[in-house]
Amino acid sequence: MATEFQPIGAGPDDCLIGPAPGDALHVMSYNLRYPASDPGHFWAERRPGMAELLRQERPTVIGTQEGVVDQLRNLAADLPDGYEWIGEGRRGGTRDEFTAVFYDSRRLTPRGHRHFWLSDTPGVVGSTTWGNRIPRMVTCVRFADEVTGRELMVVNTHLDHASERARVRGAELLASTVQSFDPLPVIVTGDFNAVAERSDAYRRLLATAKLRDAWLEAKERRTPAYSTFTGYRAPMIDGDRIDWVLTTPDVVAEAAAINPSAPGGCAPSDHLPVQALLRLP
């Protein structure tokens, strides 16, 4: 099938981080692209490549965006044994897109979770009050790490694509939520629809919640700084990073990558997954 995307390949040598070594955690943020009517990029065509990419990389945690329930069930079936997921549709139950969190249950045990909406009434399912047409939400999961014995919070979101006010207010609510989890280490994943280092949403998250950008903090970057939204095209080097992995300062970023691989020659999504190898305090 023809595609504008130029893959780096699909073999084992293309694995950028892979299964987390020792006590490290491999965290991925991935906008899956919902099953849209994209000619040449239907979900049935993208699914095998996404499955292969995830089987190669074996993240400990995957913060996903845009997945709908049948797509997430497909992903769960395609992942190796031991992966489970937590999520709710942004209009409640299984309706509409999720900010689902997948995790390797052999390593992490969920101790609790909650969903809230980015609005003045975060407990109201599907609520929108800041100028966004589409409900935006957050999935938070408290995990016990069976290797280190530590607990941690994983927070996953998808900020609005159209309203700057909604993105900024959403970032403020997200920041206050992260602060409420102190002293637990926190990992934030998401499609923020805002450019890293140049947007108010980014600056407020880092300034208010004292979060750090794993891409900037990583001791090793295993890829160039690709644009994370590609529209199925070849990614631009030094393009806009709108998908991020953020952490509290006590979490150490050993490595980071923005993965342009396309097993089978078909881009798995119109976004690239962002990956980080992290160590808890």
Task: Describe the protein in words.
There is one protein chain. With 281 residues, this protein is of the alpha+beta class. The protein has five helices and 13 strands. The longest helix has 17 residues, at 164-180. The model is unreliable at 1-12 (pLDDT under 50).
Calculate the mean pLDDT score and round it. 95
Q: What is the C-level CATH assignment?
A: Alpha Beta
Shape assignment: globular
> What string gives the helices and strands in order?
EHEHEEEEEHEHEHEEEE
Helicity range of the residues? 10-25%
- Helix and strand content put the structural class at alpha+beta
The spatial strand order of the largest sheet comes to 3-4-2-1-13-12-10
Short synopsis of the structure:
By secondary structure, this protein is of the alpha+beta class. Helix content is 20%, strand content 27%. The strands form two sheets. The protein has a seven-stranded mixed β-sheet with strand order 3-4-2-1-13-12-10.
List the helices and strands and how they pair.
Elements: E1 25-31, H1 43-57, E2 61-65, H2 69-78, E3 83-86, E4 101-104, E5 108-117, E6 137-145, E7 151-158, H3 164-180, E8 186-191, H4 200-209, E9 212-213, H5 214-217, E10 220-221, E11 243-247, E12 252-258, E13 274-279
Parallel strand pairs: 1-2, 7-8, 10-12
Antiparallel strand pairs: 1-13, 2-4, 3-4, 5-6, 6-7, 8-11, 9-11, 12-13
Helix pairs in contact: 1-2, 3-4
